[in-house]
Specification:
The protein is mainly α and about 120 residues long. About 50% of the residues lie in helices and about 10% in strands.
């Protein structure tokens, strides 16, 4: 297969994977949204990509970006699949842990002074 033919084939695949849809049914998914598979949901009737996505998330949570890399699909396509799986009850999402904010320098100094006093 020539490289131009492979590129054309690659352009069709995401469209086929999402059943022709370009946007997810939900606009709440970021690349860092954590995905968790719901235990006990049957995988029968799911496309191979959706089945693989659920299987990837079964041992623990993965971000949308991580799942996209594992599936070798664009993030936009992965978001459509994730939204479908959320709608069917196979996947739930968790927001990532927010970044820690710097502490007050005074508090840190008091902790340091207390530790020094113990030594």
């Amino acid at each position: 297969m020539t490289s131009s033919r492979r590129r054309r084939a690659g352009l069709v695949r995401p469209y086929v994977v999402t059943d022709g849809r370009a946007y997810p049914s939900r606009n709440t998914l970021d690349l860092v949204t954590l995905l968790v598979a719901v235990n006990g949901e049957p995988l029968t009737g799911l496309s191979p990509e959706k089945r693989r996505l659920v299987e990837l998330c079964r041992p623990g949570s993965l971000s949308v970006a991580e799942v996209a890399v594992h599936l070798e699909l664009p993030a936009s396509v992965t978001k459509v699949l994730v939204a479908d799986l959320m709608d069917s009850g196979h996947i739930v999402t968790r927001t990532p842990i927010p970044t820690a904010r710097p502490s007050d320098g005074r508090v840190l100094q008091e902790v340091l002074d207390g530790l020094r006093a113990l030594l």
